[in-house]
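Researcher: Let's continue the batch. This sequence belongs to Costars domain-containing protein, and it's 152 residues. Same format as the previous ones, please.
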Amino acid sequence: MEQEMDEQPLTNRVQMWQKRADDHKEKQLINPFSDWEGASHRQKLSKDDENYGRPVSGSQTEFRGKQAGEQSSREVISLCYVIYDLGKHQEDGSYNITFGELFETFLMISNNLVGTLLRARKYKFVEFEGEMLYQGRDEEKVITLRTLPERP
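Model: Same format as before. Here are the structure tokens for Costars domain-containing protein:
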């Protein structure tokens, strides 16, 4: 009876490691960069597939992507509130601030102001002239806050 108790946990551990090995092999067979024998039977990707270009559901990559998206959204909201607090209120309800003034202030909050401005413009929170703003050259360009997003 004592021998049966010792064998049971070992059997469970062997099964657990075999399952891990089988899962790893299955992932390698569909990995487009795998050198494993038999990997030529890879899953064909179609641009019409709704999951094309997206990470595997439930994966760490999906989790990190969602975290990055949430962080970017927080930075856009923060930027909009900085413009709201420091900008000059206009008669139409918008707020204006120059890029130079915003750059000096926002640099203390984040080091990626231009990318955050581009994202805020994508969602129509802000407007500014030109495709990209550069420190030094565009100091006097006006950034207009059109819509103030809700804080989470």
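Researcher: Any comment?
Model: The radius of gyration is 26 Å.
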